[in-house]
Amino acid sequence: IQATFIPLLGEKRDINGGVIVLTDITELRKLETVRNDFVANVSHELRTPLTSILGYLDTLIESDIEDQQTREKFLSIIKEETNRLSLLITDLLNLSKIESQSFELSPGDFVKTLQKVYNLLEKNAQLKDIEVNMEVEENPPQVYMVKEQIEQVLINLIDNAIKYSPAGEEINIRVEKKADKLYFSIADNGIGIPQEDQARIFERFYRVDKARSRSLGGTGIGLSIVRNIIKQHGSEIKVESEEGKGSIFTFYLNIVKE
Ligand code: ADP
């Protein structure tokens, strides 16, 4: 609680009363902490690849590395880390755009969007010999959505399901109409998420296993983008998962009434 005293002056400019304003600044403090944490996290995430890039560049510049193979190895690490920085910045800009703007939902064809995204990611699945089964509502109704954002959500969820599944596993996607909502779910038989991490995976930069996510090209931002977008659609993203068995992510969109 923050207290502010505002004196009330009498005719002779003497203080003859006052008002005390009490403000509950708990929420404000919380917001401040979240913002400080975010800045600290971003700085850390950006510094890690930068430190590595600078280190390798210094070595290349300062020491005479004759061996061509070593030089090439260093250069390819520098390229990899630069790509990572670029991906991180793209993700951050996306997230900040979604958080700061409000969007107009309009009627759209969810299944068509899903098909488009699937075509985009099919190769990734094939590379790991993963079969993606789709069980989709016949004559699906239109839903309220922002097409580009729903594309982003589907990319992130399908990409994760592929990333965190071992080769040869199956992924099951389902689109189902229930009352005035269209439900989407994606189930994988991958590594799963420990119970204690399930509530936190939608936070920015939260990763169950940093090293694993990093080696798979993850930034820890994908699911926070998903949560934000789905919230702006008046819905909620949910996860059910068992470690070592797999995960199911679900959300719904509101159907446009005829
Ligand atoms: P990342 O870029 O690390 O994949 P996300 O925000 O997309 O970041 O996901 C956050 C974390 O949630 C991941 O690092 C991973 O630990 C976990 N996760 C997300 N999707 C799955 C999944 N389908 N199976 C297992 N773990 C997952």
Automatic annotation (TrEMBL):
Residue ranges constituting the Histidine kinase domain according to the UniProt record: 41-257
Domain of life the protein comes from: Bacteria
Location in or out of the cell: Cell membrane
Name of the protein this chain belongs to: histidine kinase
Shown residues in whole-protein numbering: 336 to 593 of 593
